[in-house]
């Protein structure tokens, strides 16, 4: 059941991996929702680093996922698959999806949707799911961050970085971030970071030692990997947790396991996109209980960088790759 829908839609895809210019508009059938799915008429779609890596040819979609990029959307539920609650029809939602966001219509599992509060704009709603789910799982579940602890985040002005700052502060943590210039450090402090380190002019290991009085941080959220891992470990307090969510600096790291043992460190990490529907549903349920009220009452709002038209997705990706953005880049679809 649902509204009368068109047979086809516009989506932004590519034939071969490459630079931002490979995107082109294509006409595709409007997808039909299967069991436990909803069809969303997309208002806005968030742009995330995994989209860039997919376009470059290094992050193929998991089996069964749409080949069209886009991992988070906002919009209106316009059709229901078997098993999806009828109350969702016509609702404004934002959703974590495994692909297909760069299109006029997109499928989502109904349990991966969150209701858009009355006071939240749909462009902001689209900027939340991927970073919120990622930060919640990795900082608070895998990283076991707790009130009174200190979190170190690399890339403090990225979408992930700004979300990590805001969530960590809301739950009583101190936050140290690294950024690539003084302007970004200032912006990170505006978002709520207690300390911001310019990693191009300061040694972040020395700065963390100074800031923490030699105690170190309990949790590192690592998006770099590579040679940062050994340096991050020097920043960790005893029984500290190191959580990797991206390998922008390369996937291989040299680790002194004697240090891991003697200081009782935990090294972990995860990727969100390939996880099961059941896992993402459980994560969404926990977020709805614990973190979503902060968005509903306006305590947390995503840091927005720039909104591009869907047809300008190449420019959106170019901006992300340039690294000049502060917060989230979003596509306006409908």
UniProtKB/TrEMBL annotation:
The residue ranges of the Enoyl reductase (ER) domain are 18-331
Pfam short name (any one):
ADH_zinc_N
Q: Which GO terms describe its molecular function?
A: NADPH binding; oxidoreductase activity, acting on NAD(P)H
InterPro entries (alphabetical): ADH-like_C, ADH-like_N, ER, GroES-like_sf, NAD(P)-bd_dom_sf, Quinone_OxRdtase_PIG3
Gene3D superfamilies registered for this protein in UniProt = Medium-chain alcohol dehydrogenases, catalytic domain (3.90.180.10), NAD(P)-binding Rossmann-like Domain (3.40.50.720)
Note whether NADP occurs among the keywords.
yes
Domain of life according to the entry? Bacteria
Keyword annotations from UniProtKB, A to Z: NADP, Oxidoreductase
* Protein name, per record: Zinc-binding dehydrogenase
Q: From which organism does this entry originate?
A: Qipengyuania oceanensis
């Amino acid at each position: 059941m649902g509204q009368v829908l068109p047979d086809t839609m516009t989506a932004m895809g590519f034939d071969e991996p490459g630079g931002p210019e490979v995107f082109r508009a294509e006409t595709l059938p409007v997808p039909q929702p299967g069991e436990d799915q909803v069809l969303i008429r997309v208002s806005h779609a968030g742009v995330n680093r995994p989209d860039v890596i997919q376009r470059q040819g290094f992050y193929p979609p998991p089996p069964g996922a749409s080949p069209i990029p886009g991992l988070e959307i906002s919009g209106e539920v316009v059709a229901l698959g078997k098993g999806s609650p009828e109350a969702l029809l016509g609702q404004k939602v934002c959703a974590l999806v495994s692909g297909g966001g760069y299109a006029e219509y997109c499928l989502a599992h109904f349990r991966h949707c969150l209701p858009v509060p009355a006071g939240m704009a749909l462009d902001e709603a689209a900027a939340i799911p991927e970073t919120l789910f990622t930060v919640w799982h990795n900082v608070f579940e895998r990283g076991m961050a707790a009130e009174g602890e200190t979190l170190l985040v690399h890339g403090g002005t990225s979408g992930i970085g700004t979300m990590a700052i805001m969530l960590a502060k809301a739950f009583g943590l101190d936050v140290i971030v690294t950024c690539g210039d003084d302007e970004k450090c200032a912006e990170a402090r505006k978002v709520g970071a207690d300390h911001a380190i310019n990693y191009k002019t300061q040694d972040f290991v020395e700065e963390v030692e100074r800031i923490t009085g030699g105690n170190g941080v309990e949790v590192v959220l690592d998006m770099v990997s590579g040679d940062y891992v050994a340096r991050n470990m020097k920043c960790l307090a005893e029984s500290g947790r190191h959580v990797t969510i991206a390998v922008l600096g390369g996937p291989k790291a040299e680790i002194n396991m004697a240090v891991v043992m003697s200081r009782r460190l935990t090294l972990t990490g995860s990727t969100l996109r390939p996880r099961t529907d059941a896992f993402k549903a459980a994560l969404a349920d926990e977020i709805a209980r614990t973190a979503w009220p902060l968005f509903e009452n306006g305590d947390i709002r995503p840091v927005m960088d720039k909104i591009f038209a869907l047809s300008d997705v190449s420019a959106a990706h170019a901006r992300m790759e340039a690294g000049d953005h502060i917060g989230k880049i979003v596509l306006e679809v409908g």
